[in-house]
């Protein structure tokens, strides 16, 4: 089955426009041109596209095609126009203002079509009907098929390190001088095969154990109890949603529930490697080890005897001076890896199938505790029907998506606030305390009188600040500025509002997806990329 998404391979998407180069002659209006509209050839290209586009479709026809794509998704769009209606791809592309030379290969045509559709899908128009915290409460109250997308932010209050914050796992890996060019290498498969001991020296910190679910986990459980949860797509590998009993969920990035031998692919229960994880040892496959030992008996004496189930990682020393002839001590060993998805690995087919099914049923999207930086999960937001309302609950704004209601701040505080407005059926139950922790956390879980939180609205916008919000984020300032300028100058507020809701990023089409020409102000574009760099460092 073709994928709804660009690719189900896991990558961190730093820039939203990381697409492969296009064949010569292809043009996306002038959105990626750094030269600006003063360039004469640019104007000629544009005139040619506009003329061809107008000859092929009326504005209404082009708008209808764009609406079809945004509502029904990429898969249905290609099926409808290319397969059923037999429309040539170069003609389909004209509806989006993209001109491709007719001699381009079918492969190139399909590639340009996919890239173009992805760009259109990323330019979601905010639904004007939903703006306030009360709107969010009303949406949750009336919705029956809520798709929840969760990330590390829902678990940070449980003491599980997140990955990208200043005190997160990556920052600590850097600080503690592990020999990683990039902290992400810890979740890089080739690196794991070479130095599995690095992963296993940190694995216990993210292993699902010794943690109590947060109010965010309990909120998702409440949605399920109230028969409102379509599915929880979580990027987390900490097992806390399972611990609290959420059934309708998908572990997009796998879990520690099972582990597999990288050589013979045998799956073991996660408990088989638990002792090794806590002892920072690299587990080896007992089946392959037995075969290796058998072979060794019948072969001339080996240089080194095979390891037992576990090898001592402390014995490992990297010898930089011997880099040229360096062979990893783990080379050829039957390494066992938990079935969490590493960078560069594909997500399971289940992810694709579920998403195709769920997009037909979903009536509300709630994103909690993720900055949507890791693809393909981050693409879920743009691939659901655009008429489905979207709510963000996160400490930081997510500039590259266009949510209808943005609730910034500490996730636990925000969901508690929402639950208090949702009535008795949303009374967050006390979390089950793991046997190991009994007595340790009992006191902190004593019910205490919570002060009522009063969220602060950013001007008259759809953005609300709760305690813990990143108030200084440039995106928040842009929204405030846009709305305040809008009040001063009612006549000319469209571009400012649009700029703010776009998060300062360029989008391929103007609001509504029409073919008229637009470009975000350069100053805002530069500012946004600056902020990106700062956050990455
Ligand atoms: Zn094996």
Structure explained in plain terms:
This protein has 537 residues and is an alpha/beta fold. Among the domains are: 31-122, no CATH class; 125-156 and 214-252 and 349-471, 3-Layer(aba) Sandwich (Rossmann fold). Helices cover 37% and strands 11% of the residues. It has helices spanning 40-56, 59-84, 89-94, 106-122, 133-142, 169-175, 189-194, 196-206, 215-225, 240-243, 274-278, 286-298, 349-358, 380-383, 411-422, 474-488, 494-501, 522-536, and strands at residues 11-12, 27-28, 98-99, 146-150, 229-234, 249-251, 254-261, 267-269, 282-283, 310-311, 336-340, 364-368, 374-375, 390-394, 405-408, 456-457, 463-465. It has an 8-stranded mixed beta sheet with strand order 6-5-4-12-14-15-17-16, sandwiched between helices. A 3-stranded antiparallel beta sheet has the order 8-7-11, with no helix packed on it. The radius of gyration is 26 Å and the shape is globular. The structure holds zinc ion. Zinc ion (ZN) binds at residues 261, 263-264, 266, 285, 287-288, 334. Residues 261, 263-264, 266, 285, 287-288, 334 line the site of zinc ion.
């Amino acid at each position: 089955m073709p994928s709804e998404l660009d690719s189900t391979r896991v990558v961190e998407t730093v820039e939203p426009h990381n697409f492969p180069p296009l064949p010569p002659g292809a043009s996306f209006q002038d959105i990626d041109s750094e030269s600006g509209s003063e360039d004469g050839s640019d104007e000629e290209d544009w005139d040619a596209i506009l003329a061809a586009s107008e000859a092929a479709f009326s504005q209404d026809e082009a708008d209808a095609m764009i609406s079809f794509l945004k509502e029904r998704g990429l898969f249905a769009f290609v099926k409808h126009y290319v397969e059923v209606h037999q429309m040539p791809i170069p003609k389909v592309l004209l509806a989006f203002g993209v001109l491709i030379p007719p001699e381009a290969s079918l492969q190139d045509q399909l590639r340009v079509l996919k890239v173009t559709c992805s760009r259109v899908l990323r330019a979601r128009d905010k639904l004007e009907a939903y703006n306030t915290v009360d709107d969010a409460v009303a949406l949750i109250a009336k919705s029956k098929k809520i798709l929840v997308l969760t990330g590390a932010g829902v678990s940070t209050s449980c003491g599980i390190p997140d990955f990208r914050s200043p005190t997160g796992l990556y920052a600590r890996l850097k600080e503690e001088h592990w020999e990683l060019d990039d902290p992400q290498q810890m979740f890089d498969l080739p690196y794991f095969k070479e130095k599995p001991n690095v992963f296993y020296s940190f694995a216990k910190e993210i292993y699902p154990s010794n943690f109590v679910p947060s109010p965010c986990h309990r909120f998702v459980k409440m949605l399920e109890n109230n028969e409102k949860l379509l599915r929880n797509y979580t990027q987390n590998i900490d097992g806390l949603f399972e611990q609290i009993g959420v059934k309708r969920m998908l572990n997009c990035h796998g879990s520690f529930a099972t582990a597999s031998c990288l050589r013979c692919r045998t799956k073991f229960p996660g408990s088989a490697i638990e002792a090794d994880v806590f002892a920072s040892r690299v587990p080896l496959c007992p089946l392959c080890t037995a075969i290796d030992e058998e072979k060794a008996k019948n072969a001339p004496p080996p240089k080194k005897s095979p390891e037992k189930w576990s090898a001592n990682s402390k014995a490992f020393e990297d010898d930089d001076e011997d880099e040229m002839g360096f062979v990893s001590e783990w080379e050829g060993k039957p390494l066992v890896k938990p079935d969490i998805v590493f960078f560069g690995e594909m997500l399971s087919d289940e992810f694709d199938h579920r998403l195709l099914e769920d997009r037909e049923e979903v009536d509300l999207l709630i994103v909690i505790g993720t900055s949507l930086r890791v693809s393909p999960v981050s693409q879920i937001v743009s691939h659901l029907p655009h008429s489905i309302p979207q709510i963000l609950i996160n400490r930081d704004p997510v500039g590259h998506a266009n949510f209808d209601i943005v609730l910034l701040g500490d996730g636990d505080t925000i969901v508690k606030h929402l639950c208090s407005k949702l009535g008795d059926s949303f009374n967050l139950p006390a979390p089950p305390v793991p046997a190991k922790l009994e007595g340790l956390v009992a006191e902190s879980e004593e019910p205490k009188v919570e002060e009522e939180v009063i969220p602060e609205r950013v001007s008259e916008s759809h953005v609300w600040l709760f305690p813990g919000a990143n108030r200084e984020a440039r995106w928040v300032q842009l929204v405030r500025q846009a709305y305040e300028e809008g009040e001063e100058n009612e006549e000319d507020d469209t571009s400012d509002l649009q700029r703010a809701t776009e998060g300062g990023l360029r989008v391929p089409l103007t609001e509504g997806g029409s073919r008229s020409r637009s470009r975000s102000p350069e100053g805002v574009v530069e500012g946004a990329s600056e902020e990106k760099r700062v956050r990455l460092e």
